[in-house]
């Protein structure tokens, strides 16, 4: 997540993830119309990937994004690209935050970073927040907002806007499968036979790609910020690091993967008005006008990609490149996702989809 959120969602900076405030202060001086001498920094503790901080400059607030500490996978955590993508998408899709400043000089904080506006809203994770506690249709409103927001993002005209050049739509699905398979082979610490079967199935049953759109590539409930007293309205979509252009059902498949994996009071989103998997798919089809017949393939791809992302993080922990204790048991989550993906392939084969 990018870290914008409601008041009180920050925490002291985790040991080992501190920023060099003197260097940051001097870099910002003259580059932002703000009181840099009043600089204070806190951390947004959520997320497992990029590091996100709240930067206060007197009465102004910004969100700072940078790559995680230590070695990272090639081409991952590219904050320069994320900044430039957001800079172009924001005028066309208002839920994308407005960027404020890019620093490409690694001499300031050790890696490139950028600042963007801070948006204030509610991010739903594993507890119902106080703002929504008395709402009887929280699930329905939030479900519709999430799905409709995705359809609206996919409706942005990438040709007229020139955004088609942020990716390569031709061969997109093949590159997705092969690229993530390569990342898996470069980060695995043990063999998982189910994973090899999943990769083979994705190759053998690949559908014809849908007409290309913007693809967020990590669109999920806790990357969406809702209005504080209106869960039916999105005020921010977060975490644009992997955004590209390609088949929009890649976003739908990954969203469904997250939708079914959530725990806590939201369960599998089946109660209290939350949309079921089937209702989610139907609503997206209605809002987007797209053919979702082969959605099962995209769900498997989503589980596969999520497993690889978590494996890359666990690999860094396994190699001692990060000491964050939150990463110690990610291997179990990876194994679980691989089992889910393998089971979905069998279901899809049995259903003939």
UniProtKB/TrEMBL annotation:
Residues 40-291 form the Aminoglycoside phosphotransferase domain. The keyword NADP does not apply. Keywords: Transferase. This is Putative aminoglycoside phosphotransferase. GO terms for molecular function: protein kinase activity. The keyword Lipoprotein does not apply. InterPro entries: ACAD10-like (IPR052898), ACAD10_11_N (IPR041726), Aminoglycoside_PTrfase (IPR002575), Kinase-like_dom_sf (IPR011009), Ser/Thr_kinase_AS (IPR008271).
